[in-house]
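Blinded run. Sample ID left blank on purpose so nobody reads anything into the name before looking at the predicted structure. Input follows.
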Amino acid sequence: MASKVKAKKLRKNFLLPLAVYVFLFSSLLFFCTSVFLKSYNNSLSTTKQNVETQIADVHQENEEASQEISALSSQNRVSAVSQAALSYQAQNIVTVNEGQ
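Blinded prediction complete.
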């Protein structure tokens, strides 16, 4: 009598397709986050340059103001005004409040 040959059932490997899907999803997620981070980095860089430009402008204004203050408060100017016997006139005095 001939022996019966049993056909082996092939088990499907469910782990391999799952690993492929996880890899594809993580690759897509990596690509999206890298694009987002690069665009965000560019916008931050632009903002940084704008702020640095504003800081440089303010430094320039401060420098000009300090030079003007030193010129107005120099001893030579004060002595020249006192020697010229200039006096205050009420109509020429302007009061500037803080915050203007």
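Unblinding after everyone has recorded impressions. The chain is about 65% helix and 0% strand.
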